[in-house]
Amino acid sequence: SQLHLQWLLKAYRDLSEKHTFFNHYFDKLAGTDQLRKQIEAGFTEAQIRQSWQKGLKRFRKIRRKYLLYQ
After folding, report:
1. Is 70 part of any domain?
2. Would you state the pLDDT for residue 70?
3. Which of 13, 21, 32, 62 has its CB surrounded by the most CB atoms within 10 Å?
4. Which domain holds residue 18?
5. What is the CB neighbour count within 10 angstroms for residue 39?
6. Which residue, 51, 23, 52, 54, is CA-closest to 36?
7. Residue 30 CB coordination number (10 Å)
8. 3-state helix, strand, coil in the chain (%, to 5)
């Protein structure tokens, strides 16, 4: 399952008062401020997903040794 970024991106694009879209809790839910900054900068869904790949690759490598079943 994937995070449906298109809804988030559309909601941000369609809002006329963009400064009210994000609150302090958004960064906590996202884990960092990176996603918020990417959305504010106008990144596409593909660009955002691509930015996650290096971290996902590192995570998958680390998690392999903890998997009980393959």
Report:
1. no
2. 72
3. 21
4. 5-64
5. 21
6. 23
7. 15
8. 65, 0, 35
